[in-house]
Amino acid sequence: MSIDTDAPFTHELGWTPSQADVDTALKARGPWTYDGTDPAIALFTASITRFNLRFPPYSRILELGCAESDWLERMRRWDASFDLTGVDARRHVRHAPEPNIRLVEGCAMSRELFPAESFDWIVLLGALEHFGLGFYGDSKRPDGDVEAMANVAHWLKPGGFVYFDVPVQPFFNDAPDGVHVTENRHFRMYVPDVVHARLVRPPLIELNRGYSLPEPHAGTWCHEPKEQLVPYWFVAVLAQKVIA
To answer: Which residue among 56, 155, 157, 161 is least enclosed by CB atoms within 10 Å?
Structure first.
């Protein structure tokens, strides 16, 4: 796979998917379904087809920032053989999970949470842009997103995959480093050019990315954004840990 910078503007007025598009998407998703309003899960649902995501049986899968969605439960329904773990600084706000889903109250910036090479897949849905800002009770560290991705690389098995999404905007007058933190320190927005350099560092390699409209149209693919959009654009990224 290669980085796709020429995705079609599928959000143009009057655009509808062909039956072939629908059939291909349904085949790739298999038993996975989602008809809710969480933009990160909607984007993941679209990414299954776009990135040809595959989760082999008995995969060890970690979700970082799991408190506000039922993604883990949906993965359990996809394949009961998955070994699923979720981490969040606010485990106490999450409803009780289904059997065989482990929840850990902790910080994605804490490397000691797991031994090296523990997981086949790590997934971050609407989470990475929050780490290190203190909004959700985690410690305040300006480069918390970078630290978390370094831990992702440490926790992944060689050949393992990471999928994440973050908000993007083409430029910021107040962000010379290409990263803008909202006034209330809720989340970061990234200039598209810095996403790779900041978040996908060796031994991770980027396999593919896709830009999307935000809610309520998350998962509607478009070209790399060249102008500001309120509230922001999304980018979804698939990366892999290089086998030494």
So the answer is: 56
